[in-house]
Amino acid sequence: MIEVKNLTKKYGSFTAVKNLNLKLEKGHIYGLLGPNGAGKSTTMNIMTGCLAATEGTVTVNGFDIYDDAAKAKKCIGYLPEIPPLYNDMTPFEYLRFVGRSKKIDKTKLDAEIERVMDKCGIENVADRLIKNLSKGYKQRVGIAQALIGDPEVLVLDEPTVGLDPKQILEIRQVISQLGKERTVSAPIRTSEPGSIGRSRSSTKGTR
Ligand SMILES: Nc1ncnc2c1ncn2[C@@H]1O[C@H](COP(=O)(O)OP(=O)(O)OP(=O)(O)O)[C@@H](O)[C@H]1O
Ligand SMILES: [Mg+2]
Which terminus in the chain has less CB density within 10 A, N or C? Predict the structure, then answer.
């Protein structure tokens, strides 16, 4: 599904990621573990084609993230560390904008927006301005935009950071549900730099 080979990222003379190898399979939720500054967001930005690697390759469903960028990116939904929300739009307007950017068929777009809003439990705030939503609901809108187009792989950068315990549980339930159908990768800070763990097995029939 996603294969990272010999990935190195240097910012000038500083090495943020050194020779990382990963293989992420369908139907699992993976946690990328490491303390602040370990290189988790850098790795995710490279895995999703938002940042160029210094060395190494990333393939998504066999498509190289740089050489076959359009095909590779079509398989990925990404929630970056800072969700890319437009505060003066409503969730519905924003999701329509994202759907158009992802070139979703116009005749299917409204149904697709309804589908992701339902998955993320944001129908009740669909017509409120994003800037007036609580942090947890903004995060849900961020996850919803990653789901538009039904990508096979979801990459979520700290989807529960800054949320209250109830919201964390709710977002985890959303992610857990999504992980039954696709590959989900989300980083978690720990004292074990650079390690990676498979946090949960797939349900039967999803592998
Ligand atoms: N654009 C950049 N230019 C220079 N250094 C950078 C840049 N982006 C990240 N870094 C550095 O690379 C290292 C890894 O950063 P990164 O954001 O990937 O870490 P992280 O594991 O996501 O941390 P956190 O848990 O705080 O989110 C850090 O030392 C950071 O300061
Ligand atoms: Mg980070």
Answer: C
